[in-house]
Specification:
Length: 149
């Protein structure tokens, strides 16, 4: 209920979620936690940054995936995934769609300079939080008056 109050009427209609499932998950339903997030806050949310995109729908998915091949980068993710947040042109958060109903959030970092600066983490790594825990943590930050980012 708090997510609904934080995000207002920022949800994506079920019909649009089903279209996104067709494109990004071969017609299979998204994990429950992702479906709920999209339904309640897929267009507007205080705890996720959609950048200049109007929500985390189709255009955000297309553009952020293109970033993985810009400037000669050849990064691929072979499993089905969905992007839940973008940060400038170098980073986004995503979840795998084949990890059950509450998948782990992963960070994709695409630096434009020397990749040796990434260290041991590499360009794709887990936040060690499930989607539900990630959102709950952001909500807790907002409730305490902190910036969730």
């Amino acid at each position: 209920m708090l997510l609904r109050r934080l995000c207002g009427a920022g949800g994506i209609p079920l019909s649009e979620i089903e279209q996104l499932e067709q494109v990004w998950n071969n017609g299979n339903p998204f994990p429950i936690a992702l479906r709920e997030l999209l339904f309640l806050a897929g267009n507007s949310c205080y705890v996720l940054d959609y950048g200049w995109f109007d929500g985390c729908g189709q255009q955000m998915q297309v553009d952020a995936r293109q970033w993985m091949t810009e400037e000669g980068m050849e990064r691929t993710i072979t499993r089905p995934f969905y992007i839940i947040e973008v940060r400038l042109l170098e980073s986004f958060l995503m979840v795998y769609l084949d990890e059950g109903d509450n998948p782990y959030v992963r960070n994709v970092f695409l630096p434009h300079e020397d990749e040796s600066s990434l260290g041991d983490l590499g360009w794709l790594y887990s936040t060690d939080r499930t989607l539900k825990n990630f959102i709950d943590s952001g909500i807790d930050d907002v409730k305490k008056g902190h910036n969730p980012f």
